[in-house]
TrEMBL record:
Origin superkingdom: Eukaryota
Annotated source species: Karstenula rhodostoma CBS 690.94
A matching Pfam family: HET
Annotated PANTHER family: DOMAIN PROTEIN, PUTATIVE-RELATED, TOL
Domain Heterokaryon incompatibility: 16-166
Protein's name according to its UniProt entry: HET-domain-containing protein
Length: 352
């Protein structure tokens, strides 16, 4: 049996896991008003859950952690649901978890974590060089130079907008991909082929995310006064550059419901806001607002860029949130500049 628990009422302070997964058709067991009493009372049998959830729970048991947070079972779904309030708190859920389980290779709720495979295929091919050719003498391993991108980040789950913040905010991640398990934390990116860590030549993309994940984990409280150490060091990119990079990565992902566009990046934006100490709204920052209006689509063409009605009715046209496209934003200059704004006839304009 599995049961949904109210951690506050039951005074539960134990470590817990989280789950990143593709929903697919939402015809599986979810927490709703009509079954709340049963799921939070006697619970449900494990066989009532999808293969994704069943196998994630088996991983939790293997690790030795009793609790797992699954969005569709821990946030009330359907009429009378509480996603509007709980969705604003998901950054806390993932940041404070022990580890996130990511089902990277499942297209829907039925795919599961585990795959039939030949373990020997995971080990990179090796050759022995005698030193007479271009390679120095010794044993050399042959592998794809885009291993991390192709086998992990190119999977369907990492094209989802919601999962972007889940990946960036989780302190540790176990990714169950098609061929092998990948590992991510603030100090190491590894996989079964390289359990001690990715070789330097393969680590470029992973190291960027790892770099910022480590800094986010140092934010021990939700107020700037609670930061235990600087978020960036002398040789690190600024938090502004991190935001520009995060914005491009996020807007390159897909959202089933475009109304969630600003909500699905809010968890990352909130952390940046607390560091910058300024207000955030409509996808833009309070200071030097005019400097931020030069954003543009990644490919600068109409291909892959669209102004869809649900975004146009919700966000101002001068915000990147008003279009569906990968977005390139630009740095704000620290020194003030002067602007003269006129209408098309060159006359003074007024606006509210």
């Amino acid at each position: 049996m599995v049961r949904v628990v109210n951690t506050a009422k039951e005074n539960i302070k134990s470590p817990y896991l989280t789950l990143s997964h593709s929903w697919g058709p939402p015809n599986f067991l979810q927490l709703k008003k009509e079954n709340e009493g049963r799921l939070m009372g006697e619970g449900a049998t494990i066989t009532e859950l999808t293969p994704n959830f069943q196998q994630a729970i088996s991983v939790a048991k293997f690790i030795g952690i009793r609790y797992i947070w699954i969005d569709s079972l821990c946030i009330m779904q359907g009429p009378g649901g509480d996603f509007k309030s709980e969705g604003q708190l998901m950054h806390k859920v993932y940041r404070h978890s022990h580890c996130n389980i990511a089902i990277a290779d499942s297209l829907d709720s039925e795919g599961g974590l585990f795959r039939q495979r030949n373990p020997a295929n995971i080990v990179p091919m090796s050759i022995e060089a005698d030193g007479t050719g271009k390679l120095p003498r010794g044993n050399w391993r042959i592998l794809e130079d885009d291993l991390w991108d192709e086998e992990l980040l190119a999977t369907k789950i990492y094209t989802r907008g919601w999962v972007f913040q889940e990946r960036m905010l989780s302190p540790r991640i176990l990714h169950f991909a098609a061929s092998q398990i990948f590992w991510d934390c603030s100090t190491l990116s590894a996989c079964e082929a390289f359990p001690r860590g990715l070789p330097h030549a393969l680590d470029a993309k992973a190291s960027i995310d790892r770099h910022w994940r480590g800094r986010m984990q140092r934010m021990l409280s939700d107020t700037p006064q609670g930061y235990g150490e600087p978020v960036v060091g002398a040789n690190d990119d600024s938090i502004e550059n991190f935001w520009l990079s995060a914005l491009l990565s996020y807007t390159s992902c897909n959202l089933t419901n475009q109304d969630d566009k600003s909500v699905a990046i809010w968890s990352v934006a909130k952390l940046v806001r607390d560091i910058l100490g300024e207000q955030y709204g409509g996808g833009l920052w309070e200071n030097n607002l005019e400097e931020q209006l030069a954003w543009h689509s990644y490919n600068m063409t109409s291909e892959g860029c669209s102004r869809i009605p649900e975004l146009q009715s919700r966000y101002p046209s001068w915000s990147w949130a008003s279009i569906k496209a990968p977005i390139i934003a630009h740095s704000r200059l620290s020194k003030a500049r002067q602007y003269v704004v006129t209408n098309h006839a060159g006359d003074a304009i007024r606006f509210e």
